[in-house]
UniProtKB/TrEMBL annotation:
Name used for this protein in its record: ABC transporter substrate-binding protein
Keyword Phosphoprotein listed: no
Signal peptide: 1-23
Gene3D superfamilies for the chain: Periplasmic binding protein-like II (3.40.190.10)
Domain of life: Bacteria
Coiled-coil stretches: none
Amino acid sequence: MKSTSLAAATTVVVLAASLAACSAPGGGDDAAASSITIWHNSADSPAVLDLYERFEAETGIAVELVDIPSDAFESTTTTKWATGDRPDILEYHPVKSALLPLNPAANMQDLSDLPFVEKSGDLYPAMGTVDGVVYAAITGFPSIFGVYYNKQVLADAGLEPPTSFEDLQSICDGLAGSGVAPIYESGGSAWPTQILPLLYGSEFNAGDEYGSAVAANERPLTEPDGPFVKGLEAYASLRDNGCFNADATSGTFENAITAVYDGTAALTALHSDVYASFLAAAGDDAALLDETVGFVPVSATEPVVAYAGGPIGTFYAPKTGDAAREAAAIQFIEFATGAGYQDLVDAGPAFPVIDGVTTPDDFSELQLAFKAAYDDGAAVAFNSNIAGFGGFATETTKLLAGQTTPAEAADSMQAQVEQASKAAGLPGW
């Protein structure tokens, strides 16, 4: 297995072009493919990297890895894709808002009839599916969005972990003058600023009801009393009431993790995929981390988390025009979701999303909290299947900085969704 390094990220485009040449139409249709190319996230876990190696050993098909830098993952992938370059396997987000720009009907193989689909419960069609066709093979447990909290900080102040936005404000009031930031916000990283407004709407999106209505142009994001505007207003209220850290507009999610672990902040809204970073803050001592940090669901008035499929371990099989390599790509997906799946889950360890394998032991208390929140009525993040939502983090970061109002942010997002939906020719637009 060959891979570029992070240090060589600037050579990725050149390498990808040479590898794509191996996938040109007519190159090997009459014989089994000897290799496949995978565009993969440079932040792939050791378990996923091991999956690639085990596929090589099992099949004799060489895996050529092309690193897509994790810190510019979406933009790098879409830029390369727009040039017409194609891998045999693409590791990417399963949410429709990310999938639609890739034009899956024209560019992706249909995976609907593969065995993993029926074995994945109700994960599909909420993820990786467009117009009833499954294009993604999801092997990883979804990203769970909620609130991390420092147990000792809350206990010392006589406060309970939050379950609602009213609770967030109560914690803010209860920690006033304590020197502890009630909520650490990460405007410098930008992407975390969208989490709290999205969490507000989780309880309104059972069965993707609200998100589907917005995607079909049945409900505008600009509804004055709708979940979207109310979530933005609740976020602005927390800002105005001094609930965030003093450097909220420049703070980073890495600093949020450190602050909550150290107790200089009480809470932060992030997703479950940063668990490894919290563990590192605790010196890789899972028991110590469990003693220090908890995780809870929070929405407008009820404890409901939002979830979304992540890119790590989510695979697509693009159409390359080379029948042999397309068949080898399907072979990889069958291995990743079949014969190789138990080892992938064990190596994580990870909670399985495909039936028929055994769940590993020895999960930490914090990891079990993610699973419990998911099992207890989690709702898919309502923006997951709405086209044109890529600019939301920009809008919430501007809102955090006082550069826009909730109504203006909603107007901007409605315009972006309308433009993207019309461009994609979606029903209702």
